Amino acid sequence: MLLINPAAGGRLSASVVGEIVGHLRAVCDLRTVIATDAGGAAAAAKRAVADGADVLAVVGGDGIAHLAVQACAESDTALALIPAGTGNDLARGLGVPRDPTAAARSVARALKAGEKRSIDLGKTAGAGWFATVLCAGFDSRVNARANRMRWPRGQRRYDLAVVRELIGLHSMPLRVETESGVTELAATLVAVGNTACYGGGIPVCPDADPTDGLLDVTLVGEVSRRDFVSILPTLRTGRHVDHPAVTTLRARRIRLGGDNGWLAYADGEPQARLPLTIRSAPDALKVVG
């Protein structure tokens, strides 16, 4: 099944869709579904798995990819990504070409060769699966603001949301429990990564590997607004982990808590308020391309 979000990134033309369909139809039997909203996309993804589809290919951004992950996790249906959204962080984490036509060609080659692989997922107790990064604190507020904004498009939207949220920057109590121990601190943000990036290519968990059975945790402690601004440029290179206010951990199971009221976001989508328990689910998702 090919599931398409035609509004993804505001740039998905009929000609591009035609090229994508043509590349896939040349190598496999194909059924195409146009998603008119998130509910319809989620229902179509679940139907593809229930019907025993070998592959669910999705055209769009991290939002539709997140919905597809919920359906395909721990099933025999493999997920193929054809990125056409704003962030495309899961595609980036899997090494998928970010041009949708090039990605479709890559998926078609993999389908013809019968190539599939497995990756880990993150699982939140009572809130679902995630494939990229779960975050809470400053960065989840940025995520919420960016989701509400309609301008500008692309990475500039996230950057503007960061600037606006800096006005209210403050730390809150955070408790992080892993199999290795407990960390308690006044924190500005926490990010739990199955893959490295969120926010359209920001490697907040730069060493995260979706095949190692572990989740990477990045903690930013209490910092002044000036210090936080000095950290921001290094986020683009992953060098923020060298700052003395930043702590990194690696674990199979993590519990985030503390008196903070933070709402967690995962794959750019709202999840649940802390406290929240998260675990790595090794080889939980089959992918193509």
Automatic annotation (TrEMBL):
<dbReference type="GO" id="GO:0016301">
    <property type="term" value="F:kinase activity"/>
</dbReference>
<keyword id="KW-0067">ATP-binding</keyword>
<keyword id="KW-0479">Metal-binding</keyword>
<keyword id="KW-0594">Phospholipid biosynthesis</keyword>
<dbReference type="InterPro" id="IPR017438">
    <property type="entry name" value="ATP-NAD_kinase_N"/>
</dbReference>
<protein>
    <submittedName>
        <fullName>YegS/Rv2252/BmrU family lipid kinase</fullName>
    </submittedName>
</protein>
<dbReference type="Pfam" id="PF19279">
    <property type="entry name" value="YegS_C"/>
</dbReference>
<keyword id="KW-0808">Transferase</keyword>
<keyword id="KW-0444">Lipid biosynthesis</keyword>
<dbReference type="InterPro" id="IPR050187">
    <property type="entry name" value="Lipid_Phosphate_FormReg"/>
</dbReference>
<keyword id="KW-0418">Kinase</keyword>
<keyword id="KW-0547">Nucleotide-binding</keyword>
<keyword id="KW-0460">Magnesium</keyword>
<dbReference type="InterPro" id="IPR045540">
    <property type="entry name" value="YegS/DAGK_C"/>
</dbReference>
<comment type="similarity">
    <text>Belongs to the diacylglycerol/lipid kinase family.</text>
</comment>
<dbReference type="InterPro" id="IPR001206">
    <property type="entry name" value="Diacylglycerol_kinase_cat_dom"/>
</dbReference>
<feature type="domain" description="DAGKc">
    <location>
        <begin position="1"/>
        <end position="128"/>
    </location>
</feature>
<dbReference type="InterPro" id="IPR005218">
    <property type="entry name" value="Diacylglycerol/lipid_kinase"/>
</dbReference>
<dbReference type="Pfam" id="PF00781">
    <property type="entry name" value="DAGK_cat"/>
</dbReference>
<dbReference type="InterPro" id="IPR016064">
    <property type="entry name" value="NAD/diacylglycerol_kinase_sf"/>
</dbReference>
<keyword id="KW-1208">Phospholipid metabolism</keyword>
<keyword id="KW-0443">Lipid metabolism</keyword>
